[in-house]
Amino acid sequence: MKRRGIVDFLFIFPTAFAFLMVIIVPFFMGIYYAMTDWDGVKTVLNWVGFKNFTGMFSEPQFIYSFQITLLYTVINIVLVNIAGFLMSLLATSRVKGRNFYRAGFFVPNLIGGIVLGYIWQFMFNNVFVDMGKAMGLAAFQTSFIARKETVIWAMSVVNTWQYAGYIMMIYVASIQSIPDSVMEAANVDGANYITRVFKIMMPMMASAFTITIFLTLTNSFKQFDLNATLTNGGPAMLYMGKAVRASQLLAMDIYRTANQFNLMAPAQAKAVVFFVVLVVFSLVQVYLNKRREVEA
Protein backbone atom coordinates (compact mmCIF):
# COMPACT_ATOMS: atom_id res chain seq x y z
CA MET A 1 0.00 0.00 0.00
CA LYS A 2 2.84 2.38 0.83
CA ARG A 3 4.49 1.69 -2.53
CA ARG A 4 1.16 2.21 -4.28
CA GLY A 5 0.80 5.56 -2.54
CA ILE A 6 4.26 6.65 -3.74
CA VAL A 7 3.43 5.64 -7.30
CA ASP A 8 0.15 7.55 -7.17
CA PHE A 9 1.96 10.60 -5.82
CA LEU A 10 4.55 10.49 -8.62
CA PHE A 11 1.81 10.38 -11.24
CA ILE A 12 -0.19 13.20 -9.65
CA PHE A 13 2.76 15.45 -8.75
CA PRO A 14 3.51 17.00 -12.20
CA THR A 15 -0.09 18.08 -12.76
CA ALA A 16 -0.57 19.15 -9.15
CA PHE A 17 2.68 21.14 -9.19
CA ALA A 18 1.72 22.88 -12.45
CA PHE A 19 -1.73 23.71 -11.06
CA LEU A 20 -0.16 25.08 -7.88
CA MET A 21 2.40 27.26 -9.67
CA VAL A 22 0.15 28.47 -12.51
CA ILE A 23 -3.17 28.90 -10.72
CA ILE A 24 -2.99 28.87 -6.92
CA VAL A 25 0.22 30.84 -6.28
CA PRO A 26 -0.57 33.59 -8.87
CA PHE A 27 -4.07 33.90 -7.46
CA PHE A 28 -2.87 34.69 -3.94
CA MET A 29 -0.09 36.89 -5.31
CA GLY A 30 -2.79 38.78 -7.22
CA ILE A 31 -4.73 39.40 -4.02
CA TYR A 32 -1.56 40.74 -2.42
CA TYR A 33 -0.75 43.00 -5.40
CA ALA A 34 -4.31 44.34 -5.35
CA MET A 35 -3.65 45.72 -1.88
CA THR A 36 -0.45 47.53 -2.85
CA ASP A 37 0.62 50.31 -5.23
CA TRP A 38 2.10 47.78 -7.67
CA ASP A 39 2.73 49.21 -11.14
CA GLY A 40 3.99 46.04 -12.81
CA VAL A 41 7.64 47.03 -12.54
CA LYS A 42 8.81 48.07 -9.09
CA THR A 43 9.64 45.44 -6.48
CA VAL A 44 9.36 47.61 -3.35
CA LEU A 45 5.62 47.91 -2.81
CA ASN A 46 3.66 50.13 -0.48
CA TRP A 47 0.63 48.68 1.29
CA VAL A 48 -2.60 50.55 0.50
CA GLY A 49 -5.14 48.10 1.91
CA PHE A 50 -8.56 48.17 0.29
CA LYS A 51 -8.02 51.52 -1.45
CA ASN A 52 -7.96 49.92 -4.89
CA PHE A 53 -11.15 47.97 -4.13
CA THR A 54 -13.11 50.96 -2.89
CA GLY A 55 -11.85 53.18 -5.68
CA MET A 56 -13.29 51.03 -8.47
CA PHE A 57 -16.84 51.50 -7.20
CA SER A 58 -16.60 55.23 -7.83
CA GLU A 59 -15.63 54.70 -11.49
CA PRO A 60 -18.62 55.17 -13.83
CA GLN A 61 -17.03 52.90 -16.44
CA PHE A 62 -16.53 50.01 -14.01
CA ILE A 63 -20.06 50.29 -12.62
CA TYR A 64 -21.51 50.43 -16.12
CA SER A 65 -19.33 47.53 -17.31
CA PHE A 66 -20.52 45.45 -14.36
CA GLN A 67 -24.17 46.18 -15.14
CA ILE A 68 -23.85 45.60 -18.88
CA THR A 69 -21.97 42.34 -18.29
CA LEU A 70 -24.85 41.06 -16.16
CA LEU A 71 -27.34 42.06 -18.88
CA TYR A 72 -25.20 40.47 -21.59
CA THR A 73 -24.93 37.25 -19.56
CA VAL A 74 -28.69 37.01 -18.99
CA ILE A 75 -29.41 37.61 -22.68
CA ASN A 76 -26.91 34.96 -23.71
CA ILE A 77 -28.18 32.38 -21.25
CA VAL A 78 -31.65 32.75 -22.74
CA LEU A 79 -30.72 33.01 -26.44
CA VAL A 80 -27.96 30.41 -26.54
CA ASN A 81 -29.88 27.76 -24.63
CA ILE A 82 -33.13 28.27 -26.53
CA ALA A 83 -31.31 28.14 -29.86
CA GLY A 84 -29.20 25.17 -28.80
CA PHE A 85 -32.21 23.23 -27.53
CA LEU A 86 -34.28 23.89 -30.68
CA MET A 87 -31.37 22.81 -32.86
CA SER A 88 -30.94 19.64 -30.78
CA LEU A 89 -34.59 18.78 -31.34
CA LEU A 90 -34.06 19.12 -35.09
CA ALA A 91 -30.78 17.19 -35.01
CA THR A 92 -32.35 14.25 -33.12
CA SER A 93 -35.60 14.17 -35.10
CA ARG A 94 -36.38 11.86 -38.00
CA VAL A 95 -35.82 14.64 -40.51
CA LYS A 96 -33.69 13.75 -43.49
CA GLY A 97 -30.08 14.95 -43.26
CA ARG A 98 -30.01 15.39 -39.48
CA ASN A 99 -26.31 14.51 -39.34
CA PHE A 100 -25.62 17.32 -41.80
CA TYR A 101 -27.52 19.70 -39.53
CA ARG A 102 -25.46 18.62 -36.52
CA ALA A 103 -22.21 19.32 -38.35
CA GLY A 104 -23.48 22.59 -39.83
CA PHE A 105 -24.74 23.93 -36.53
CA PHE A 106 -21.46 23.07 -34.79
CA VAL A 107 -19.10 24.58 -37.39
CA PRO A 108 -19.38 28.24 -36.15
CA ASN A 109 -17.97 27.11 -32.80
CA LEU A 110 -14.73 26.18 -34.57
CA ILE A 111 -14.15 29.80 -35.64
CA GLY A 112 -11.99 31.76 -33.21
CA GLY A 113 -13.53 34.71 -31.41
CA ILE A 114 -11.08 37.20 -32.92
CA VAL A 115 -11.72 36.12 -36.52
CA LEU A 116 -15.45 35.90 -35.81
CA GLY A 117 -15.51 39.43 -34.44
CA TYR A 118 -13.92 40.93 -37.55
CA ILE A 119 -16.21 38.94 -39.87
CA TRP A 120 -19.36 40.11 -38.10
CA GLN A 121 -18.02 43.66 -37.79
CA PHE A 122 -17.89 43.73 -41.59
CA MET A 123 -21.39 42.24 -41.74
CA PHE A 124 -22.87 44.85 -39.40
CA ASN A 125 -21.00 47.85 -40.77
CA ASN A 126 -21.24 47.07 -44.48
CA VAL A 127 -23.48 44.19 -45.55
CA PHE A 128 -26.50 44.94 -43.36
CA VAL A 129 -26.20 48.70 -43.87
CA ASP A 130 -26.05 48.34 -47.67
CA MET A 131 -29.00 45.93 -47.58
CA GLY A 132 -30.97 48.40 -45.47
CA LYS A 133 -30.29 51.24 -47.90
CA ALA A 134 -31.13 49.10 -50.92
CA MET A 135 -34.38 47.83 -49.41
CA GLY A 136 -35.35 51.11 -47.75
CA LEU A 137 -35.25 49.65 -44.23
CA ALA A 138 -34.43 52.51 -41.86
CA ALA A 139 -33.56 50.19 -38.94
CA PHE A 140 -30.70 48.63 -40.94
CA GLN A 141 -29.26 51.82 -42.40
CA THR A 142 -27.22 52.49 -39.25
CA SER A 143 -24.93 49.75 -37.97
CA PHE A 144 -26.30 47.88 -34.96
CA ILE A 145 -22.88 47.99 -33.26
CA ALA A 146 -22.74 51.79 -33.68
CA ARG A 147 -25.86 52.33 -31.55
CA LYS A 148 -25.80 52.11 -27.77
CA GLU A 149 -29.35 50.71 -27.73
CA THR A 150 -28.55 47.73 -29.94
CA VAL A 151 -24.84 46.99 -29.53
CA ILE A 152 -25.25 44.49 -26.67
CA TRP A 153 -28.01 42.69 -28.55
CA ALA A 154 -25.80 42.54 -31.63
CA MET A 155 -22.97 41.02 -29.60
CA SER A 156 -25.40 38.49 -28.11
CA VAL A 157 -26.63 37.46 -31.56
CA VAL A 158 -23.06 36.84 -32.71
CA ASN A 159 -22.22 34.91 -29.56
CA THR A 160 -25.37 32.82 -29.98
CA TRP A 161 -24.49 32.11 -33.61
CA GLN A 162 -21.07 30.84 -32.50
CA TYR A 163 -21.83 29.07 -29.22
CA ALA A 164 -25.30 27.55 -29.71
CA GLY A 165 -23.89 24.67 -31.77
CA TYR A 166 -21.63 23.62 -28.92
CA ILE A 167 -24.50 23.72 -26.45
CA MET A 168 -26.61 21.79 -28.97
CA MET A 169 -24.21 18.84 -28.81
CA ILE A 170 -24.70 18.56 -25.05
CA TYR A 171 -28.47 18.57 -25.53
CA VAL A 172 -28.19 15.98 -28.31
CA ALA A 173 -26.25 13.64 -26.05
CA SER A 174 -28.82 14.11 -23.29
CA ILE A 175 -31.78 13.50 -25.62
CA GLN A 176 -30.19 10.34 -27.00
CA SER A 177 -29.81 8.99 -23.46
CA ILE A 178 -33.60 9.09 -22.95
CA PRO A 179 -35.02 5.57 -23.51
CA ASP A 180 -37.09 5.33 -26.69
CA SER A 181 -39.63 3.22 -24.81
CA VAL A 182 -40.54 6.20 -22.61
CA MET A 183 -41.25 8.50 -25.56
CA GLU A 184 -43.10 5.74 -27.43
CA ALA A 185 -45.28 5.00 -24.40
CA ALA A 186 -46.19 8.69 -24.11
CA ASN A 187 -47.04 8.74 -27.81
CA VAL A 188 -49.28 5.69 -27.41
CA ASP A 189 -51.01 7.39 -24.48
CA GLY A 190 -51.95 10.26 -26.78
CA ALA A 191 -49.38 12.90 -25.77
CA ASN A 192 -48.53 15.17 -28.70
CA TYR A 193 -44.97 16.22 -29.54
CA ILE A 194 -45.05 19.50 -27.59
CA THR A 195 -46.38 17.71 -24.50
CA ARG A 196 -43.69 15.03 -24.76
CA VAL A 197 -40.98 17.71 -24.99
CA PHE A 198 -42.14 19.75 -21.98
CA LYS A 199 -43.49 16.99 -19.73
CA ILE A 200 -41.09 14.13 -20.42
CA MET A 201 -38.00 15.18 -22.34
CA MET A 202 -37.08 18.39 -20.51
CA PRO A 203 -37.47 16.98 -16.94
CA MET A 204 -35.27 14.03 -17.92
CA MET A 205 -32.66 16.47 -19.28
CA ALA A 206 -32.34 18.43 -16.01
CA SER A 207 -28.65 17.56 -15.59
CA ALA A 208 -27.92 18.78 -19.13
CA PHE A 209 -29.58 22.13 -18.39
CA THR A 210 -27.38 22.49 -15.30
CA ILE A 211 -24.26 22.02 -17.43
CA THR A 212 -25.32 24.22 -20.34
CA ILE A 213 -26.50 27.12 -18.20
CA PHE A 214 -23.24 26.97 -16.22
CA LEU A 215 -21.14 26.96 -19.40
CA THR A 216 -23.15 29.79 -20.95
CA LEU A 217 -22.93 31.87 -17.78
CA THR A 218 -19.16 31.54 -17.41
CA ASN A 219 -18.50 31.98 -21.13
CA SER A 220 -20.59 35.16 -21.27
CA PHE A 221 -19.16 36.62 -18.09
CA LYS A 222 -15.57 36.11 -19.29
CA GLN A 223 -16.19 37.37 -22.84
CA PHE A 224 -13.23 39.32 -24.18
CA ASP A 225 -12.05 38.42 -27.69
CA LEU A 226 -15.41 38.98 -29.37
CA ASN A 227 -15.90 42.20 -27.39
CA ALA A 228 -12.49 43.51 -28.44
CA THR A 229 -12.73 42.73 -32.16
CA LEU A 230 -16.43 43.32 -32.82
CA THR A 231 -16.98 46.62 -30.99
CA ASN A 232 -13.76 47.46 -29.10
CA GLY A 233 -16.05 48.61 -26.30
CA GLY A 234 -17.82 51.25 -28.39
CA PRO A 235 -19.83 53.28 -29.06
CA ALA A 236 -19.40 56.07 -26.52
CA MET A 237 -22.26 57.23 -24.31
CA LEU A 238 -22.91 59.23 -21.14
CA TYR A 239 -23.36 57.47 -17.82
CA MET A 240 -23.39 59.18 -14.41
CA GLY A 241 -22.36 62.36 -16.22
CA LYS A 242 -19.22 60.75 -17.65
CA ALA A 243 -18.34 59.38 -21.08
CA VAL A 244 -18.20 55.57 -21.03
CA ARG A 245 -17.93 52.78 -23.58
CA ALA A 246 -21.38 51.32 -24.18
CA SER A 247 -20.30 47.71 -24.82
CA GLN A 248 -17.18 47.41 -22.68
CA LEU A 249 -17.66 44.25 -20.63
CA LEU A 250 -15.84 43.56 -17.37
CA ALA A 251 -13.01 41.52 -18.87
CA MET A 252 -12.23 44.28 -21.34
CA ASP A 253 -12.49 46.95 -18.64
CA ILE A 254 -9.86 45.09 -16.60
CA TYR A 255 -7.64 44.75 -19.67
CA ARG A 256 -7.86 48.45 -20.54
CA THR A 257 -7.23 49.50 -16.93
CA ALA A 258 -4.01 47.49 -16.87
CA ASN A 259 -2.68 47.94 -20.40
CA GLN A 260 -4.01 51.28 -21.61
CA PHE A 261 -3.93 53.25 -18.35
CA ASN A 262 -1.08 51.22 -16.78
CA LEU A 263 -2.96 50.92 -13.47
CA MET A 264 -1.82 47.44 -12.58
CA ALA A 265 -2.90 47.31 -8.94
CA PRO A 266 -6.43 48.69 -9.57
CA ALA A 267 -6.78 46.29 -12.50
CA GLN A 268 -5.75 43.41 -10.27
CA ALA A 269 -8.31 44.49 -7.67
CA LYS A 270 -10.99 44.48 -10.38
CA ALA A 271 -9.86 41.00 -11.41
CA VAL A 272 -10.25 39.72 -7.84
CA VAL A 273 -13.77 41.18 -7.62
CA PHE A 274 -14.51 39.72 -11.06
CA PHE A 275 -13.41 36.28 -9.85
CA VAL A 276 -15.47 36.44 -6.66
CA VAL A 277 -18.61 37.58 -8.48
CA LEU A 278 -18.25 34.87 -11.12
CA VAL A 279 -17.74 32.17 -8.48
CA VAL A 280 -20.77 33.33 -6.50
CA PHE A 281 -23.04 33.44 -9.56
CA SER A 282 -21.78 30.05 -10.75
CA LEU A 283 -22.25 28.34 -7.39
CA VAL A 284 -25.74 29.79 -6.95
CA GLN A 285 -26.72 28.69 -10.46
CA VAL A 286 -25.40 25.15 -9.97
CA TYR A 287 -27.06 24.88 -6.55
CA LEU A 288 -30.45 25.99 -7.86
CA ASN A 289 -30.28 23.70 -10.87
CA LYS A 290 -29.13 20.71 -8.81
CA ARG A 291 -32.01 21.34 -6.46
CA ARG A 292 -34.37 21.37 -9.42
CA GLU A 293 -32.88 18.08 -10.63
CA VAL A 294 -33.75 16.44 -7.30
CA GLU A 295 -37.28 17.82 -7.40
CA ALA A 296 -37.72 16.60 -10.96
How many separate structural domains? 2
The gross shape turns out to be: globular
The number of helical elements comes to 12
Low-confidence stretches: none
Tell me, rounded to a whole number, the average pLDDT.
Answer: 92
The count of strands amounts to 2
The portion of residues forming beta strands comes to under 5%
CATH topology of the largest domain: MetI-like fold
What CATH architecture of the largest domain would you give?
Orthogonal Bundle
DSSP helix fraction: over 70%
How do the strands of the widest beta sheet line up side by side? 1-2
Largest sheet: 2 strands, antiparallel
Rg (C-alpha, Å): 24 Å
What tags apply to this protein structure?
296 residues; mainly alpha; MetI-like fold; two-stranded antiparallel sheet; 2 strands
What do these coordinates show?
The chain has a two-stranded antiparallel ribbon. 27% of the residues are buried. The radius of gyration is 24 Å and the shape is globular. 72% of the residues lie in helices and 3% in strands. Helix 3 runs antiparallel to helix 9 (206-221). The protein folds into 2 domains: 1-25, no CATH class; 53-295, Orthogonal Bundle (MetI-like fold). It contains 12 helices and 2 strands. The mean pLDDT is 92. The protein has helices at residues 2-34, 51-56, 60-91, 98-106, 113-135, 151-176, 180-188, 193-204, 206-221, 225-230, 250-259, 264-295, and strands spanning 236-239, 242-245. A hairpin with a 2-residue loop joins strand 1 and strand 2 (242-245). The two termini are 43 Å apart. With 296 residues, it is an all-alpha fold.
